[in-house]
Amino acid sequence: MGHPLSAPLWWDDPEVAAAMAAPRSPLDGSVDADVAIVGGGYTGLWTALHVLRAEPSARVVVVEGEVCGFGASGRNGGWASALFADEGLREMHEALAGAVDDLGATAAAEGIDCHFHKGGTLTFATTGAQERRLRADEDGEWLDVGSARARLAVAG
Predict the structure, then answer these.
(1) How far apart, in whole angstroms, are the C-alpha atoms of residue 107 and residue 109?
(2) Which of 21, 66, 118, 133 could form a disulfide with 70 if both were Cys (CB 3.0 to 4.6 A apart)?
(3) Parallel, antiparallel, or unpaired: how do β-strands 35-38 and 60-63 relate?
């Protein structure tokens, strides 16, 4: 296992810690599956859940080097983001935003107590070009420097 400080915060629960103390044996040989997913983080587990919803008889295998939920998925507090670097891909942005909503709906439907909260995004401009792009965003709300500072301290 990795460094103890990189263990997911939910391992503080004694029942969860006991279950995680004895991870499954390493894959020895081959396994027949309809779908093989490499990685048991948020994306891998969410993918497995949706595959099984779509096709309950599917043989789904999740292969994880540590234990499911280990690594970045266990350390980040559950952040999901719809940010995407290229503004020209409006459809991609809408799909990403929809995925955040779907994540919340999935947690609610499955009774997953992950403290899901859809908050929002603050994007800051530090150059004139960034400011022009942000001001052109029809979905955004422009905050002046004082309002931005009141919400979050950002250098510059």
Answers:
(1) 6
(2) 66
(3) parallel
- What is the per-residue pLDDT for 14? 83
CB proximity list for 47: less than 8 A, separation 6 or greater? 37
Joined together, the tokens standing for residue 31 give 């396994």
Of the candidates 94, 83, 69, 95, the residue with the CA atom closest to the CA atom of residue 124: 83
Please give the structure tokens belonging to residue 57.
Answer: 């008889």
Q: In residues, how long is the chain?
A: 156
Cβ contacts of residue 104 below 8 Å, gap of 6+?
A: 116, 118
DSSP, collapsed to helix, strand or coil, labels residue 68 as coil
User: Rounded to whole angstroms, what are the CA distances from 78 to 6, 35, 54, 128?
Assistant: 14, 25, 25, 32
Confidence (pTM):
0.52
Are residues 114 and 107 in contact, defined by beta-carbon separation less than 8 angstroms? yes
What pairs with residue 60 in β-bridges?
Answer: 35
